Amino acid sequence: MFESIALAAPDPILGLTDAFRADARPEKINLTIGVYRDAEGQTPILECVKAAERLLLESEKTKGYLGIEGLPEFLRLASDLALGDLVPASRVAAVQTPGGTGALKVAGDFLAANLRGSRVWTSTPTWPNHTSVFETAGVATESYPYLSADRKSLDLSGMLETLERDGRIGDVVCLHACCHNPTGIDPTRQQWAEIAELLASRGMLPLIDFAYHGFGEGLLEDRVGIQEISKQHQEFMVCSSYSKNFGLYSERVGALLSVCSTDQAATHVSSRLKQSVRSNYSNPPRHGGAIVATILGSSELRSQWEQELAAMRGRIHEMRTRFVEGMASTNCGVDYSFLLDQRGMFSFSGLNAMQVDWLRSERGIYIVGSGRINVAGITPSNLSILTAAIAEATSV
Ligand code: PLP
Ligand code: TYF
Questions:
Q1: Which of these CATH numbers, 3.40.50.620, 3.40.50.720, 3.50.50.60, 3.40.640.10, describes 65-297?
Q2: How far apart are CA 258 and CA 273, in angstroms?
Q3: Interatomic CA distance for residues 259 and 265, integer angstroms
Q4: 174 C-alpha to center of ligand 2: Å?
Q5: Ligand 2 center from residue 33 Cα (angstroms)
Q6: Where are the domains of the chain?
Q7: What stretches in the chain show pLDDT beneath 50?
Q8: Which parts of the sequence belong to the Aminotransferase class I/classII large domain (predicted)?
Q9: Is 231 a catalytic residue?
Q10: What's the pLDDT tens digit per position in 148-166?
């Protein structure tokens, strides 16, 4: 039976990590997968996480199953972090999920089962797993333009015109709350207000992917999109991930927050989300959620976390600035200053597929095919090798 099964295509991002590992060149540089790295190129465990784990080691009394929806304290604090007082807690149906991906999958299942015929609109470009997750859940996907023709800014009018012309009442629009993956280009507050207005006027549901909370400008600032959406929408969904901002990648911590228009709707939606959880993984893993709840529930650990998060954000910002300066000093003739408007871990460098291939084969520099660079992979010690190689790649 199995011998006739064809090989699946590798994940376009994770596949590159395997190729990087297999590369024997000592000076190789990995700017592919979106994982934070410090100045030494490491992805360390945050101090606040270590402290929370020490507390948990002493205080946890059971490894018994959690409820289907997860740890109540985690859910309360996760809602508060993402939504603050923008909506009353009684109108939020929340489930703890294995990472942001788990939140997206539970959302996809919920849409497939309960909003039949709704399609999910994703940006072009977007994180490639968006389409896979929704399609696997049985939801059709459509795409809206996001990038201007010169690939340097947001094509707001293209986005709004497409959604207005081709979107249907009941369709869902997937938006990146901040630090858009892969472009690093986010709407301004005014643009968010326009997006919120168009979606409200067309009866479309915002589904906000919040995978980089705190990596853009700050915890409050990065909520600007959710704030503007909440002014014009009684109903929307948020998929939060704690992989990046708590460095808890492998612990798989996320939350799906469904904002409903009434308390009763929230109760019903919650029962449907739990239905999806039950048939997917029964109930979420405890440890990562317990870590996040311990940190957010302690004023001391929370402020330590905010400092550590600010340090990650600051390092990325500094590397982006130094990269732009470094490219300018190569006199390569390309102005990279547009990267300074981008936010978060990723930058769309403008490098084309041929240049990306050349960098990988000739210099051991790994970049996603779209030209997306993980800025957090740049360090003071690899910066000059990188800028020289890119200058060369763009001149051949
Ligand atoms: N959404 C976006 C835009 C992402 O970049 C990621 C990255 O991994 C995720 C969701 C999924 O996050 P997680 O690793 O928590 O599943
Ligand atoms: O875009 C990224 O690099 C991150 C990590 O299937 C990631 O979001 C990449 C691919 C994937 C899962 C996570």
A1: 3.40.640.10
A2: 9
A3: 9
A4: 17
A5: 6
A6: 11-45+301-395, 65-297
A7: none
A8: 27-390
A9: no
A10: 998 899 999 999 999 999 9
